[in-house]
Structures are given as C-alpha cells and as structure tokens.
Amino acid sequence: MAWDQQFEETLREYLPFLAADEQLSPDTNMRDMGLDSLGTVELMGSLENTYDVRFVDDALNLDTFATPAVLWEALSKMFETTGS
Prior knowledge:
By secondary structure, this protein is mainly α. The chain has helices spanning 5-13, 37-51, 68-82. It is built from 3 helices and no strands.
C-alpha cells in the first residue's frame, strides 16, 4: 500500500541524511538516514497529531520505526482501529 504525501513529508523532517531529491523507498533504513531515539519520539508525536492516532502496545518498539513500509503498515492498522 502506498502512503500519502503527508506521511512522506513528515518522515523526511526526521531523516537528516536523506537528500531532498533522494527517493524514500519502502525499505529505506530510517536509522541509517539519521533517525535517532529522540527523533523517533518526536516523529511518533508528529504522526499521532497528524493522523489522530495513538501508538500503543505492539507499535511502541524500534522495529515499528525501522522502515517507512513497516511504519505505514502500523499506522494503517491504527486507522482501522480508530476509524480515521
């Protein structure tokens, strides 16, 4: 499933090593692109505000923030749960 533009724009804010003209692929390692622990917490808060969801239980781990595809899948499951 392809993610929306807002998701990509939000991710790019927290990936300092990803060049503006570089493609963000589903399997991009976000830690390799500069996402650190503080950035992960800030990204989580930003996504919660943007999509009106809450990261809880199974989604609260580093694996959720490993790649854009994994993170988008976790968000998609939250949409289904909240009906957003």
